[in-house]
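Researcher: Let's run the pair from yesterday's discussion. Sequence first, then tokens, for each.
Model: Starting with the first of the pair.
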Amino acid sequence: MQFILKAFQEIEGLGAASGLVYQQPRLYLISDYSSYLYCYELEQGQLNKIALFADSREFIPKPEKFDFEAIVEYGNALLLLGSGSTPRRNSLVRHDLSDSQADQGSTVATRQYDLSALYEKLRQTAQLNDDELNIEGAIYHQSQWLLFQRGNGAQAQNGIFIVQGNLVSDLSLSGNDVRPDDTIQSNNIVQAVEFVPLQLPVVNHVPSGFTDAILVGETIYFLASAENSSSTYQDGEVLGSYIGCMDLNTKTIQDMQLISTCHKFEGLTLYQQTPHKLEFLLCEDNDTEQLSTTIYKLTLAQD
């Protein structure tokens, strides 16, 4: 897998970026210790903050943070998913992009859901301990959800949860009809859950784990990082990051390539596609409180 990786854009005012979505001419980004959604205007070089809650904060201490690790387009909305690694991290937030105030910091276009019941079903399906669930990426395709489990817990179990059914029971947002705590009942809404375990590379005896994934045609492109920690809660030394691809239908990994030995890339979005190459934008979680982040462009040659 031939690749070119280079810095694309420096963004001030945002740190610990954990996911991103490109919608020309802007980037939407999340941070794993913030409760804002960020909108970066590429042409103007301007960063806007969108409060997800009435009391949104730039920096939330680790025990209290929502730990949003996955962001995915869903119709004309963005869904932000907590990792599920602690009870505090079981939230899903839906932000409606069609609202006229959606990019102006208004909370009117935002609704929060509780994923506790679903996440418990995921743990039971994969036989994970309470502290081992760690959802880092999400794909929605043909009424099916693919949730990517990062295996940086004690069992080091990477894999994909295949979820049939809706993650959100009520997708309408209108006027003042905004309730902060719509609860998902997994037995009513989620029809079936399957777990597909997958083996990822090991770096210096440390297994790598999924950090994001997107769908391009019939191919899943994903990121994986090796971090010297056997905890879904504590950070560790970064040993490397990979780009990989797998078949959507068989979930068979087709190729993986080490792209960095020092960066922990946690967000992946498609930037441009031509017959001969794919260009992705990547964001990095530097595990610091510094409000500055670098967006990288990764180019892959296509045969």
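Model: Moving on to the second of the pair.
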Amino acid sequence: MRIVAFTALFLCAQSMAVAQEHPQRKPLQSIDEALSCEFGAQGFLHGSIPCMEEYVWTYGKSVLGENFSLRPENDDVRKALKDSSWHQQATLWGRVVENKATPQRHIMVTKIQLGKPWQPKVDFEFTKAKRMPYLSDQLDKKVQLNCLVHGIAHGGRVLVIEYGGWPIPVAIDKDQVHLTKDLWSNDVIMLSAERRAGHGKGPVHLSLQKLEKESPIKMLSSMKEANGKKIGVQGMLTWYPKSPFTDEAWAVSEMRNGVQRTFFLIPAKGADAKALDEKLRQAWKKHKKGFIAYAGRFAHPAITVTVSGTVRSTQYQGNPALLVDPKDVVILK
């Protein structure tokens, strides 16, 4: 296992690379052309919540890929999406559906062809992480949540939070953009929200509460303020296996304010990358079972790591990084 370069992690955090073009396909300039052509539009499943028919698919190449929300037009597509998995290649046919309420574009999928699922090779026993009950169960009334900013786009008009393991879209009206435009991915915030009207039984969308005397978004831990500073983090040792868009990587997952946030561990300039890798791998190899599988990563609750390092992040980065020296990484158990 090797520690990947920070640049590679930055790229993989932004988007997933699209599958190689069909050998007979001519280069296509737009998603509209790809969806209507003989060979379809190729990409990868970025995330899904089958119980609410919420699916995000990435089209494009590398960091230039665009994320689309998917809407199944028929039962065949609905079943295929339900059976799909994270990172799985998927070729789509259909049409782009514009939504006046948000700049986030949707695809009405008329046909789908799934590629080979991504299955990481592991030599240990694991169970899938348990998520909290889906947020829709709590939305008979207005809610206040401590949550992670999963992603921010379109100048703040598109906000996705992560709560209890679920990514949840938050619809932002034009007159509310000043509340969200300066948020960074991986900020920890307190959100006052309610169910967005008009979505029926489809994917749950939230709206910001209209509060008279205070903001519906309160910052609990800012990535912008932490960027470039040395901080201490303690949490579960986490391993990212090689995937279609990234090499293997180590990380630490910290729980604070009821929110889990994961930092990649990257050797600082001049640090011994091999020593860092060996130190973390030896701690990992002491266990053969008890691992927890999250989307694209594994962790072990019995391997606690405390580390100090310098934060490196950007507003749109998937996960922040800690630049560390092996001597500043301590395995507690």
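Researcher: Give me one sentence on the second I can quote.
Model: Residues 1-28 have pLDDT under 50 and may be disordered.
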